[in-house]
Amino acid sequence: MGWEPSWCLLLCLAVSGAAGTDPPTEERRWQAVDIVLDCFLVTEDKHRGAFGSSEDREKALLVLKQVPVLDDGSLEGFTDFQGSAEARQDSPIIFEASVDLVQIPQAEALLHADCSGKAVTCEIAQYFLQARQEATFEKADWFISNMQVSRGGPSVSIVMKTLRDDEAGAVRHPSLNIPLSPQGTVKTKVEFQVTAETQTLNQLLGSSVSLPCRFSMAPGLDLTGVEWRLQHKGSGQLVYSWKTGQGQAKRKGATLKPEKLLRAGDASLTLPNLTLKDEGNYICQISTSLYQAQQIVPLNILASPKVQLILANKDPLPSLICSIAGYYPLDVVVTWIREELGGIPAQVSGASFSSLRQNMMGTYSISSTVTAEPGPTGATYTCQVAHVSLEEPLTVSMRVLPNTGTGSVPSLPPYSGLGSPGSKSPLALC
């Protein structure tokens, strides 16, 4: 991000120096700043709303002009983008974009990405209106920019319209064939933006989730439709649609609040009672009377395992079965630990596993078995289960004592211990 290394360095130093000293929210004020992003211009990709894969790319700069951001004390002395004194042969094309007509809610994430150790992927491509619409508007060019902050940061798509003031005699860009400003930049105004937090959402089976999607559009544009689609394992389906005031849920219980949609540009979708069929990438597509853009929100469904430790048999050596049931996704790690009284816990090898089972809901079950060797004084066996749905592993334990040598073992009811994080449930086997 940025035009010159010194510009970035000053900003990062300012942010670093202000860390931990943010003024209270009520004392913070809005400040208009220029946000400068290193981008690529995709000159041949005509697909709207997606990062291009074409090799016909050239370096570009996107300058979002005078974007309001909350000043946390780090913007003191912050200067506006000045550009280059003179254009060079290898200079990137510069898009100056006015944001007077729309809101950029994730501006701070874009501005401070470098300083927080994140990167911004930015691509710009020409945006093609439908022929019937284009014929009714003044001569102009449109571009769409897709910006993605790394490590689960926000994704922002903006549609920009070129400004054609004083076009006569203007120098034209060699590949785009559009007039440049006297400063050698492409001057545009942002007329539409769609934003979403793209960090993967991890939700427990049976819970509810709100899938975030927000937009802003210039005055004079009308909202004509909202669609939420689910893509998973190569198949897609419509989840919810809203058109000219009427909403229709294709997935039972899916809701979108019309008042927030029309008043605040909030197209977030709520899904209750999540099942495994709800997992996948959700595409939020916003359509206006002139433009259309979309964002992708990934959703993972998790189901936590239930763990039980069962005594299978007693002679000649006891077998312990650790039953792990009802978990999702598939990967689970089972570790057996043996500890003698006063000894050092040691990992047990040689455990066997049953075949994997999947129930009608789609969750998995498996069991692990070890032969217990109590030793001369007895030993505690612990089954430890790690899974992505758990903040810490589940553990369940059983105390096994040696045979008394009388040739018989007192009758004890089979023990089934339900595991919990960090829990240990001892049982003495005489």
What order do the helices and strands come in, and which of them pair?
Blueprint: H1 5-18, E1 29-42, E2 57-71, E3 93-98, H2 107-111, E4 120-126, H3 131-134, E5 142-149, E6 154-162, E7 186-197, E8 201-204, E9 209-211, E10 214-217, E11 223-232, E12 235-243, E13 246-249, H4 258-264, E14 269-271, E15 280-288, E16 292-302, E17 306-313, E18 319-327, E19 333-340, E20 346-347, E21 352-353, E22 357-358, E23 364-371, E24 379-386, E25 394-400, E26 416-418, E27 420-421
Parallel strand pairs: 1-4, 2-3, 3-7, 8-16
Antiparallel strand pairs: 1-2, 4-5, 5-6, 6-7, 7-10, 9-14, 11-12, 11-15, 12-13, 15-16, 17-18, 17-26, 18-23, 19-20, 19-24, 21-23, 22-23, 24-25, 25-27
Observed structural traits:
3 domains, 7-stranded mixed barrel, mainly beta, Ig-like_dom, Immunoglobulin-like, 430 residues, Ig_C1-set, immunoglobulin domain, 6-stranded mixed β-sheet
